[in-house]
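Throughout this chapter, every protein is written as a compact record of paired, labelled lines. The reader may check this reading against the record printed directly beneath this paragraph:
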Amino acid sequence: MAMAVRVRRMKEAYMLLPLISAGKNCNLLVKHTNFCPRLLNYYSKNSCADINRYSTVSTISTISEAVPESLVQLNIPFFIKSTIDKPEDPSHCWLNGIPDKKSLKDGIFLVLIAGFVDSSSITEANFVSVLEKVKFLQHRYPFLQIIGFQNTKIPLHSSDICTHLFRRTLREYISFPILLSNKDVLEIACEACYLMFSGSSPPICYGMEADMVILDQAIKDFRAQESETPKIMHHFTSTWVKRTDDFKEPSLCFPLRNLLLYFPGGISVDESANRLFLSDSNHHRVIVLDGNGMILDSIGSSPGHDDGNFESAKLRRPAASFYHAAEDCLYLVDSENHAIRRADLGRRVLTTLYPRSKTNKNSSIWRWSWILGKLWRRNDLDAQFEELNPDALLFPWHMLKSPNGDLLIFNYSCEMLWIMDLASGLIREVVKGFSNILEICEPLILEKSMLLNQIPNDWLQQQADAHSSSKRIPYVELMSSVETFLDQILICDPVGQTVLKYNRNSGSISSFQFSNLGILGFPYWSSSPLERVCAADAALAANSIDHLESFNLLPGRVDIRLNVDIPEYVDLIEPLGESCIWRQTRGAATEISEADSTTTSSEKVGVAQQWYDEIDHLAFSTPEIEATLEEGTMSLGEKIPEGKVEISCSVNSSPGTSEVIICAALYLRLKRDSDASTESRQRKAARIADLLNPGTRISRDVIVQFLLTSKRDLEGIIITRPVHVRLKFDCPNHPKADNSKDIILTDTSLNVNVALT
């Protein structure tokens, strides 16, 4: 056993053999040829002695041709740290966020150096592979700071760069910041690499071939070195504030969340019941609809991993699905959770088929752990993780059913295949390599590919930028995005963010016309539960406030009516339903339940009794606001004027300060006109960008460019426009009655006008 351990250590030492410089400082060097070693470099402890210096060094290498002495490279960790305070200048810019400044001193960083805005130095399949490694480690170690880095000669502020990164982020769900630089910092010849460093340890660089086991062990080693330092996890000023979300979403594409579909990733059908199952991947839900586009149901409420009924279950980027007619169940790929889920459509319950929990869910220990997990997430450095299995189900995307009943599960690039027994939910075999996979299931893959061959070439050509592939089966990454339904071929369009219908008889192609949108409810990304109202989070900053107003009122009942004016160039697709309205009170105001709102008491209530009544109301009411539209606020037959939306609610106000938060989701679409000129199309794209991005978190011009390159019908785009209104009340003490003992409650009506820009 001891000898085996020594041999393994010698192999590891050989893989980590450094290319040591002759000088005092050792900086990262890559020769400007087609050579790219497995291990690009190792920084000795002496490299931290003078981190601010640029160094010209020679490298001990097995290459016959010497490295030019004039080659000057920059210390990558220092360069990254120097850009944080100045996120944008002529030589560099940060996209998709900025690293946490507080963790720069003691944090552990993993830098992926690759071609994010071009694929010239690395094939698409290899890029997806290295990206999956980084994303997995990001999920496994929440304290790990992930950074992407690319040296490029393209103008940094080019709209082409941002448009390309938009598409890549949509497809790959890149949630970490990316640093672009036009300096001669580093040139990658043929492969990507990983650079790992921290505030107190020397950086280490690994080549693309470094597998996740090596990277996982490196992170543990860095963590062990940091064990005596203060904990580097997420710190809050208050101990009770919990993290608003344990799932990082790309900040670059925040505005696109307000599209009805946000990267449709897969589709399957049940022809006998006229049902379609559409994976709205980046909205973390599966939409059930009929052949006419009417939405029937929705599976999933928000990003996460929870089983339960459809309204409370959580998914993370669902992709391919398979309908099992005998069971009336939908099997679906839960990509970012590395899981296979099973949706019982009759009972409307979602469960996890794989992986199965090893913990007994009936035990009190499991229940207590579940409660603690709901209250806050463990973020201490001593958290224990299971041993890493490199053959485990990681980032599955496609799924087919084999003739013998097995589930064939592929990753996005089709370089990994997991063969799962459907009855037991166990993985029987793992196959690596596209050529080896074709030997097993080439007929099934070709059957899907033949459907794509019937699609017009101009549409497929548009997908080429987003789905470049060097495999002998073109567009294999799209095989989960196409399905037959009657005499039509249904296609998920991940570029245009829509679903298309191709009629095989007439050869015509058209967009799906969705209806019954209210069944989707209020979007999770626009809501603000009470713990989110007080907590600070980057994602919350994207929810801009449309209207903020303060009132001085006497205590009592307050009837509120919001009159929302929508822009004249858009149409409201469907009337606003209660399922798309979200209300909440804070401070000295409480909601009125439906039963209480039907009658108004004129009795004078003592202060003490009112205080106890409010405590009882808070103790036995649900967290969600139960206020409903007042039936008596409008006369019968009165019609809401065109271009206006009305929202009503009622609250009880008490002495002190309070706030009423009212949010709604309006489904809008541009009005159609006959002007098809280029100027008109640009104007329409600009209007959509304004509706999608009221907070201007990202350049309006980039969104316009992205919409124009999709070449889709801009007037057919459905926009989920969130409305966010906050009303603040300041109420004095209750007026006293003539006997100076009782108090008087005052009824107030408020009409608030809100204009959407």
The chain has a mean pLDDT of 76. Residues 174 and 250 are 6 Å apart (CA to CA).
